[in-house]
């Protein structure tokens, strides 16, 4: 999200006295699309977070207690390791003080005390920052590049499209996932079922991310979410190749798959 849109969102929340809860740890996992894999994090990848903007705007008339209108709900799982299961929150001092006094915190302390204690040490001594800069982000940049190259070679010729950048107007990407739109007569839920049954590949089809009851506002029926963070590099390329083969097979045998899709209990 661009800086302008972030500012606009915060101002909207202030106008209507709403609270923005942002999972913005991905802001730490951004890389360039035009340079080789690197540990460098240039200024365009260091945008103010939503909670920073809220604090920078100062007091708000409809918030006399200074709780603020934004909180950053971060997770060490996404930058330190998948089994850490520990997070942190950043917001206005009054909001954090209230959160610290909540019953779930006061009665048992941190939900994951051992992990929290270890993480506190690596945060304070700088080891976590070095790990993110020198290991996590370069590895994700490498894997993302492999996935995008494989998609362009094996899936794009079949009508699939991916979002070039995660920040409009900049050659920057970040995070763990690639969203891909598939031009097909079949829903991605059905295509995901074909991949699971015929290729032993599991993907996140778009309907998984739809808000139930609000499908008309945002539909992802033709989209899939692909993870490049979990699998080995060679498996990323192999998986994309097999997705391309499956899509070509579906296109070449459309009548057969239409019958499968219309069956009372189909693979999708």
From TrEMBL:
Gene Ontology terms, MF aspect: 2-aminoadipate transaminase activity; pyridoxal phosphate binding
PANTHER family membership: AMINOTRANSFERASE, LD15494P
The keyword Secreted belongs to this UniProt entry's keyword annotation: no
Keywords tagged on the record: Transferase
Pfam families: Aminotran_1_2
Domain spans labelled Aminotransferase class I/classII large: 8-228
Protein's recorded name: Pyridoxal phosphate-dependent transferase, major domain protein
Family annotation (SUPFAM superfamilies): PLP-dependent transferases
């Amino acid at each position: 999200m661009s800086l302008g849109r972030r500012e606009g969102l915060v101002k909207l929340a202030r106008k209507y006295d709403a609270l923005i809860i942002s999972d913005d740890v991905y802001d730490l996992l951004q890389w360039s699309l035009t340079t080789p894999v690197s540990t460098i994090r240039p200024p365009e990848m260091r945008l103010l977070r939503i909670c920073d903007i809220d604090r920078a705007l100062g007091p708000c008339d409809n918030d006399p207690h200074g709780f603020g209108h934004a909180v950053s709900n971060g997770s060490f799982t996404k930058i330190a390791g998948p089994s850490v299961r520990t997070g942190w929150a950043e917001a206005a001092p009054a909001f954090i003080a209230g959160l610290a006094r909540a019953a779930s915190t006061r009665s048992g302390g941190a939900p994951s005390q051992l992990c929290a204690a270890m993480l506190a040490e690596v945060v304070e001594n700088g080891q976590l920052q070095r790990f993110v800069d020198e290991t996590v982000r370069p590895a994700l940049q490498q894997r993302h590049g492999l996935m995008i190259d494989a998609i362009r070679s094996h899936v794009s010729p079949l009508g699939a499209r991916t979002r070039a950048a995660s920040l409009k107007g900049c050659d920057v990407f970040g995070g763990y996932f690639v969203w891909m739109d598939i031009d097909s007569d079949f829903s991605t839920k059905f295509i995901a079922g074909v991949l699971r049954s015929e290729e032993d590949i599991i993907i996140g089809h778009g309907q998984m991310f739809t808000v139930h009851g609000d499908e008309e506002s945002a539909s992802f029926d033709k989209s899939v979410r692909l993870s490049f963070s979990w699998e080995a590099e060679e498996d990323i390329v192999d998986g994309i190749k097999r997705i391309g083969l499956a899509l070509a097979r579906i296109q070449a045998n459309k009548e057969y798959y239409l019958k499968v899709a219309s069956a009372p209990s189909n693979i999708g």
